[in-house]
Amino acid sequence: MIVKMKTDITVSEFENFKKKMESLGLEVKDASGETFKVVGLIGDTSKLVESDLYAIPGVMEVTRIQTPYKKASRVFHPENTVIDVCGIKIGGGNFTVIAGPCSVENHDQIVEVAQAVKASGAKLLRGGAFKPRTSPYAFQGLEAKGLDLLVEAKKETGLPIVTEIMSEDMIDRFVKDVDIIQVGARNMQNFHLLKALGRTNKPILLKRGLSATIEEWLMAAEYIMSEGNDKVILCERGIRTFEKYTRNTLDISAVLAVKELSHLPVLIDPSHSGGRWNMVEGLSQAALAVGADGIIVEVHNDPEHALCDGAQSLKPKRFDNMMKKLAQIAPIVDKKM
Ligand code: PEP
Ligand code: MN
User: Fold this and answer.
1) Rounded to the nearest whole angstrom, what is the distance from the C-alpha of residue 184 to the centroid of ligand 1?
2) Which of 96, 105, 125, 193 is close enough to 294 for a disulfide, judged by CB 3.0 to 4.6 Å?
């Protein structure tokens, strides 16, 4: 970390600053010139909060060199992480497709969709049981019953299941029955939930928050990893911008940024980003081309009557066509499907 200080800093102010830094185990290296006063802080600065430094008299400007996250950082873990979910490898050159309805609605719906997406090559089944809806009057999900139905769909198809958790009190049930626990965009900074999930051994699909920076997203991953669970899969699902035509703006460059900064696998959600079913195929192709490790996509057997997100859901037939095209493109961009 580099700290620019007031040029007229007093000797006692400087000594106070130095003592504080040394008490944190950091070495203070003076790199001042004739007209400026600059010091370098050497050592593990991950526990330092920049804004706290500004409270120390004499400090003018703080520049971080090391990232504030360590376990999620590629610097300390150069090789890509590959996460094994019931024998399916996420990362490591694979393009994994997770598909299913936004919400589990009833037995026949989830099983029918599961069978269809499996036949088209999806490796895991998604389906929301606990739904984080903007309106409290909208369909909130079948909750525990939805989990029962997902378990049945898994039994009938063999597809591992991915579903969203909203509160800590459901962790035991999720650990028992769910193969990847999803943390939705709205809970990306629910730090208690993240820490509690960090104490489990389950793969966690961590969606990017509605307006989260890449650093905030990686810090959320760090919360999970700091408690001992390093099985984190990131998911870019579009961020909020001024644009209204699409539901969110898919930040395709986030995949490249995350790949540079972190070793964790990263998926794209082409459904919640565009918010329109006719954009899903193009965004999925973009995901494959940009080097994402897969997609999580909404598929519904009757989108018109879906209880949630019908407008962005693909019908099984369209999903099948999309999968065929993706399978043709995959080898060109060195991905296995
Ligand atoms: C979802 O996957 O159904 C969902 C609610 O996504 P997000 O958290 O990205 O909005
Ligand atoms: Mn949805």
Assistant:
1) 5
2) 96
